[in-house]
Amino acid sequence: MAANKLVFRKTIIAGTGLFLCLFLIVHLSANWILLLPEETARELYNSYATTLRENLFIKSISYILYAFIVLHVIYALLITIHNRKAKPQKYVVNHFLQNSTWTSQNMGLIGTMILLFIVVHLANFWARVKLGMGEIIELDATGNLDVYKVTFSLFHNIYYVIFYTVLMIPLGLHLNHGLKSAFKTLGFYHKKGLRISAKVSLIYAVIISIGFGVIPFFVYLK
Amino acid sequence: MKVTFKIWRQENRNTKGAIKEYKVDGLTEDMSFLEALDHLNELLVLKNEKVIAYEYDCREGICGQCGVFINGRAHGPHDNITTCQLHMRSFKDGDTIVVEPWRAASFPVLKDLIVDRSAFDRIMEQGGYITAKTGTAPEANAILIPKEVSDSAMDVAACIGCGACAATCKNASAALFASAKINHLNNLPQGHPEAHKRVQEMTYQMELEGFGSCSFTGACEVECPEGISITNIAEMYAKYTKAKLFG
């Protein structure tokens, strides 16, 4: 029997989502270098950025990452289209907040906000550093591309600081619901374990969203 | 007690429906919600108007016939009850009560508040039973079943198929219903021989019927009159994967 569309699509969303959750831990740990004093942070950050670009293993992982982001978005879109067809008529009155959270009812909207963030984020860094678009990036004293300077100048624009910080709210909400739901979608049904996974998801979402959210402010104040 | 009912009226599945307002006096707090609708229908008969069509049978919360959406909640403002278990004391004098039929593409409206829930029956036809001929009722303990297993099977066997789960779900997902029916039999020794086939065919039928996918909002378990937990959906997914790998 062919794979069930309803289950298969959600499994893809859950699997790719869990990988993205792992990636965020690595990404945040590295970005916390930006919280260090400038003289230490610049060299560490630039040499780390060079390692990311030049290490073959990390490069291969980065292609998986791009593919998983695209898959996560495409399958979310397919699921949303199918779900809209399954519920073509809405209720005149619907007090869904009495039986569920706003986040769980609006993962698509929140996900779209995160997608917007990713597009801007990639344009700010990935397009400049990896594709060489925009202004030429200078080299630092050790001969690495001065990605620290790119970050530093971006986060001295208050509009970007606000954008990068505020968009961490939908990220946190998405992670909290997404992570605990991914476990369930992948068939983890131990009741006590699920209560623990709900707590872990909340802690994870808070650390990731606040962790990323404070970076632009710290850099702005440097 | 006086309330204003705003009720969905629709002639049949091919016509467009609309909300119609009825001011109803002479109700008491002790009346059940369905008795209040009966009272309104009696008034409509006296006025020579068409009565409101709605389903009911047992009126004691065990048959699953009477589900409607009341003031933005499946089965009304309380958690884990059926529509027939709702009483007018849950509302205040002068309240407006909006009553709508279940909304899901797979539950087309037949008339007013009645929807066609035969999609659930067709899911059941794909494995909501065992094919072994059981003959007359056997001795209860002929097959020894640990209490933990029989308890968990009974928790989901309690599903009355009212449709509130799919009706309240933003995606019209029937995952809670299907998982209850699948886990009920798959966890019992009698259901084991056909376990893999059951989970695959019942979930496939759920897809064919046009139900949406589960987003784990948890709304279904709050509205389910039997309080069936959404962990059953996760268990169904685990059983599905196992069936795909080893079935």
Automatic annotation (TrEMBL), chain A:
Statement: the UniProt record of this protein carries the keyword Ligase: no
Keyword flag Transmembrane: yes
Keyword annotations of the record: Membrane, Transmembrane, Transmembrane helix
UniProt-listed Gene3D superfamilies: Fumarate reductase/succinate dehydrogenase, transmembrane subunit
Ranges that cross the membrane: 12-36, 56-81, 107-127, 158-179, 200-221
One GO cellular component term: membrane
Superkingdom of the source species: Bacteria
Protein name: Succinate dehydrogenase
Organism: Flagellimonas pelagia
From TrEMBL, chain B:
Keyword Transferase listed: no
Cofactor(s) demanded: [4Fe-4S] cluster; [2Fe-2S] cluster; [3Fe-4S] cluster
GO molecular function, one term: 4 iron, 4 sulfur cluster binding
Keywords recorded for this protein, A-Z: 2Fe-2S, 4Fe-4S, Iron, Iron-sulfur, Metal-binding, Oxidoreductase
Protein name from the UniProt record: Succinate dehydrogenase/fumarate reductase iron-sulfur subunit
Matching PANTHER family: SUCCINATE DEHYDROGENASE, SUCCINATE DEHYDROGENASE IRON-SULFUR PROTEIN
Keyword Metal-binding: yes
